[in-house]
Amino acid sequence: MIAIKDKYSKVRKRSEDICSTLEKEDYVVQPIVDVSPPKWHLGHTSWFFETFILVCYVEDYSSFNPSYHFVFNSYYESLGARVIRTNRGNLSRPTVDEVYEYRRHVDVAMDKLLSQPVSEELHALIILGLNHEEQHQELLATDIKYILGHNPLFPTYEEILNPIAVDTATNEFITVKDSMHNIGYDGNGFCFDNELGRHKVFLPAFKIAKNLVTNGEYLSFIKDDGYKKHEYWHAEGLDWVKNNNIDAPLYWHWIADQWYSYGTAGIQPLKMDQPVAHVSYYEASAFAAWKGMRLPTEFEWEAMCNQFPWGDRWEWTGSAYLPYPGYVRAAGAIGEYNGKFMVNQMVLRGASIVTPPEHSRPSYRNFFHPHLRWQYTGIRLARTVNTDDL
Amino acid sequence: MIAIKDKYSKVRKRSEDICSTLEKEDYVVQPIVDVSPPKWHLGHTSWFFETFILVCYVEDYSSFNPSYHFVFNSYYESLGARVIRTNRGNLSRPTVDEVYEYRRHVDVAMDKLLSQPVSEELHALIILGLNHEEQHQELLATDIKYILGHNPLFPTYEEILNPIAVDTATNEFITVKDSMHNIGYDGNGFCFDNELGRHKVFLPAFKIAKNLVTNGEYLSFIKDDGYKKHEYWHAEGLDWVKNNNIDAPLYWHWIADQWYSYGTAGIQPLKMDQPVAHVSYYEASAFAAWKGMRLPTEFEWEAMCNQFPWGDRWEWTGSAYLPYPGYVRAAGAIGEYNGKFMVNQMVLRGASIVTPPEHSRPSYRNFFHPHLRWQYTGIRLARTVNTDDL
Amino acid sequence: MIAIKDKYSKVRKRSEDICSTLEKEDYVVQPIVDVSPPKWHLGHTSWFFETFILVCYVEDYSSFNPSYHFVFNSYYESLGARVIRTNRGNLSRPTVDEVYEYRRHVDVAMDKLLSQPVSEELHALIILGLNHEEQHQELLATDIKYILGHNPLFPTYEEILNPIAVDTATNEFITVKDSMHNIGYDGNGFCFDNELGRHKVFLPAFKIAKNLVTNGEYLSFIKDDGYKKHEYWHAEGLDWVKNNNIDAPLYWHWIADQWYSYGTAGIQPLKMDQPVAHVSYYEASAFAAWKGMRLPTEFEWEAMCNQFPWGDRWEWTGSAYLPYPGYVRAAGAIGEYNGKFMVNQMVLRGASIVTPPEHSRPSYRNFFHPHLRWQYTGIRLARTVNTDDL
Amino acid sequence: MIAIKDKYSKVRKRSEDICSTLEKEDYVVQPIVDVSPPKWHLGHTSWFFETFILVCYVEDYSSFNPSYHFVFNSYYESLGARVIRTNRGNLSRPTVDEVYEYRRHVDVAMDKLLSQPVSEELHALIILGLNHEEQHQELLATDIKYILGHNPLFPTYEEILNPIAVDTATNEFITVKDSMHNIGYDGNGFCFDNELGRHKVFLPAFKIAKNLVTNGEYLSFIKDDGYKKHEYWHAEGLDWVKNNNIDAPLYWHWIADQWYSYGTAGIQPLKMDQPVAHVSYYEASAFAAWKGMRLPTEFEWEAMCNQFPWGDRWEWTGSAYLPYPGYVRAAGAIGEYNGKFMVNQMVLRGASIVTPPEHSRPSYRNFFHPHLRWQYTGIRLARTVNTDDL
């Protein structure tokens, strides 16, 4: 039980560490619907443990505040009414201090629960809760960046970042012949239900890049008027570009004839050799088309990811987010975790510089709508090759 | 100069007093476009003194932070770009502490300026700035109520309120014969430019109520299905009712077969003899029609207001907000204060329980769009009478 | 009875004459919500006679098609469900031929009814129906212009127009001293209920232009960048200009370095000495401010209109559309004619080149939302003067 | 050349036959953005031949009307400005007669061109143009149904329908073991570029239904409150249901305690044994989940479609519309045909009762956004099976 108790407290602490240099005001705002207030993340992840574990497994558990159930439910229809997502940024209460008190309350109860032997079922739920919290840590990092990066004062801030492995290698491709692969999680550890149902996939011959596309390479696309050349874009992508006056990745600023980007150090000159980040699927796809290539499928990525470095950027794939063969939604509220989102979103593979350590694996499937780009989303190139040419 | 210096510090202090029991988080949010974050009000009123007075009248004045000009400009086109109104609630920075520092910075400079002799022109500007700040004090009070009253935790709070003069008199009307009246400000003190241009208005005979409509009277309208009887409503009012599922004034809640309303003490049973508040023009007008009467015009109100008690509720009138004959917009940014809003809004007369003392007068013209009701808006009845019957 | 029978058939015929050169397709479309399909106007005006007269006064009247009640009700809540206004252009059926058959059906029944003695009450209803139809004739003319003028083929068409009385006189003003006037309808003929309640109004001294503003004068405003100078605009007007990229009156086109306008003859070079038409209240008001003047109030207009030519353009006034003192909504569906629109609209006075002959009078009050300009709306200037200067 | 000339005239005639019983008014309206006016389809398909063939291959070709290029371009960015899609229903001109004249003009020129020897390249373009027109014939049929089926008069109409093969067989499933399949077009005839790039796909064992889901089966889902059980729905599907008050397939009406549906014969009692039609992907997917199954992938469908009857309903698959490996967009305007729509849409396979004869094939890929249902969209069930159980 030591292991799970330690893991619990380590993961929980990390969420608070991410927020440790924030001002109270930073915890409150929600500038766009996709970005939740940091205090909401802190409360919601605690609510998850309270709702799915403490209420069910601790006989005399006393809720910190029954109204929080309404405030911190994210999207679980099975669990009743909730504050609608667009309104999270309208709530000044509970205060940040109260949310931290709430975390203490939950942590004390969990600590007590974990001091006793834990059933396999409960263990699985806790691990799910911790993985859930790690997902929110990633969102915390990107939401904080969005909140501060869209403030006209462009404040600097601290962030728990993994180091970026900028690879100096030239733009090499790995060539893969026609071949059969096993896709999906295959281990004894934790994974989400959308990774299950390991199954065979046949992949026609292809090439996949060893490195991610850099800021410098993406800049060439911009300079070639890539945002204006309709032939590289999806029709809906072009509409998105026009309606939102998009002409560069998020956080890029053109100031006094030079490109800058916003990050923890505030506004800084763009680093050309870093992997490009904060692009939408539409942009990633248009860039690839401009290069005469395409994005890899999620299967190509998973099959080959042991042969190239990854983990700096969430990488857009050309695969829509759909269930694997034999996917079954779990019963009850836990079943609302993944399956109900399997439409109109694209799969991302890998991990990013704000992904918690040990939270990524080759079979991990992330997913976002194609226009979103507040995550550290990047681009890896691929293309189909003629088998006869190999 | 003592007088103006004292008045300055007294008014400025009052803004901060209104916020004195808020949590930091309460200062930040903007649940609807009309409700600004309290810290924005505190910053904007300081910006007003900085921009219109300190920058112009203090030779070596050094701005607290030049970016604040962009953050705290409300709507002055003459003064350049600004944060758009709908985005005020997305700004976590400047922090509440920084905004208070900003106030200190401005106050110190103003204090120094006011320690010397003050020209008439400068005096007038300061008085304008203080009246401007008092208007924002009223908004501060109602915006705080909105922020807390729409929080699912319904927190209690403190507020600087004037006492409500509940009048026990029966529902008497004052009768006025055909008569000529002088309308508009007529004194030596301060008034806004929309009150100027004192002019004669002829009023056909009418009756005007001595008292405001009470919660109890308004409840009768609800019980009679008033919200569903189209014959009492403007077409746009009925659309507003249907699209927003309106069935009672703002802050009224129907809980367990009883009406409650939200206020400083949290959710409390509705007090029937208090004047109704937080109704839109559409509701005020429909209620009056249901009573077989109408709202008074702003001229009827001003002509007779010395004969009935007022000051608890801003009172909707049946007059559209339009310029008086001979109204001229002032040159420059100051000219954007009133004139550009003279379309699509209705006039309110009187004052409310959160109006600062000495901030009201018979000629004062407030104005809002007809669907708004987060102010303490109430109803006084009137009707036209046949002269021959008098 | 001859008189009313003749008037009936004359007015009814005029509606069809207006449409006589249309293609069937022109009868069907609704390019914006304010513009109804011509066949809808033809059906709705017949429905008015059927619903308010034939159904009530003809014992054995048999409806042409009961479903038409749903199709051709415009906005009468008292009369049940209806096709919502935005959907009128989605209805291909009833066909144009069927609508004309419907008119024949109604006309035959009316003809029979009018061959017998008619009570005073019925007579009044018929006159109301005919005035209602004349209002729709004006809309028919402007809606047809909108439909064809927004077609990329810019077809020519014929229209029943009154001649424009272009006045060559110089820009003279009539001066009026402080004076009392009687406002509202004062006769034995027909008027709408919003003109009733004749009452005294005191008018401070003012000047009012004898002539309307011309295209040439309005062009000077454009050339002086009037659309970009915020100081002349209402805040909501400026938003409207920006959001809709407005830079000239409706139907003006800048082609190959020259201004053209669209009319019955298609696209033609702009005639500088004609009165400007198709401007919104916002534009009219901004133009007046740019000239250092204002629009006349509806009372100033009515008081003086016997001293200047009018009838070419509906003239925006600076008066909001509000009830006269003592205005009472009629009971039943007829009561929905005017009162429920008395908010958020501005009054227009006069008449336009497409107003049916004998349909205008000094007390006539038209009204539109301030952004609308598909009517022949124009500008007359006025200003307040200091009595002492007279 | 006879063959292509005959085929041309046969296909072109069919478009006009579909419209032969329409009233002129039916040709004009566009009740929702997805439904184009019939006259627009007739013009656009002619514009396709004019733009891609006559202008390029006939030296002295004289355009019928150069403005039509602007009016009838659908979405080709390469070809310049165009009437935006939402405005098609606002165009009363060109008239229906003029559109038919335009067709004559194009047909005469094509006839002349086809009387001479035709190059392979030209032949391919003509075949593309005819397939394009056949696609629009399908849309013509469904758009006409939408226009008339949403008219409050519910008119009857004639339509060129293929007979429905109602299969009386019981609900049998075909079982398929783990197996490799070739997917994509493999012949010498015509296909669209999205079918090309024939490639191997490995399919894990599955079962697929021989018959389509019937109205009767779908009704059971409704009776079991299927539209309210969130566990069967995608989150975006549930939002769509709630926001649009969806409780049955399109064209179903609940009248006097009985279900009816609208079709060529007007409103008729629902036929229980007919395949359900006019459901969205969300509904199809929720129904399958309620049955404990799923929709087939497009690969499962293509691999097995020679073993079950199809052609009555377009069948939603569980596959997102994405390019096949090695898909390359053609250069120029022709390249805008398919690739730019490959995001946010789901694949449909099969054909429907309004698909032109010979226009379908096993590799044909249709695609729509998941909320759309004005096509004859139906449901076939499938499920993954455990290989070991076989």
Automatic annotation (TrEMBL), chains A, B, C, D:
GO terms for biological process: ergothioneine biosynthetic process. Residues 191-311 form the Sulfatase-modifying factor enzyme-like domain. SUPFAM superfamilies: C-type lectin-like. It comes from the Bacteria. This is Ergothioneine biosynthesis protein EgtB. It comes from Epilithonimonas mollis. The lineage of its organism: Bacteria, Pseudomonadati, Bacteroidota, Flavobacteriia, Flavobacteriales.
